[in-house]
Amino acid sequence: MNVHVAIGPLVALVAGILILAVPRLLNYIVALYLIIIGLLGLFGDKL
Prior knowledge:
Helix content: over 70%
Shape: flat
Order of helices and strands: HH
Radius of gyration: 14 Å
Distance between the termini: 33 Å
């Protein structure tokens, strides 16, 4: 039996659980997401 898990939904699930447990983490999670998306947008073809 093979189980394939996509990274996006898994990260979203973990982030949602962390936000429920510690609501102050929302700022850091959103900021980190935006930084990663920005870096991938700028340098995605070179990485």
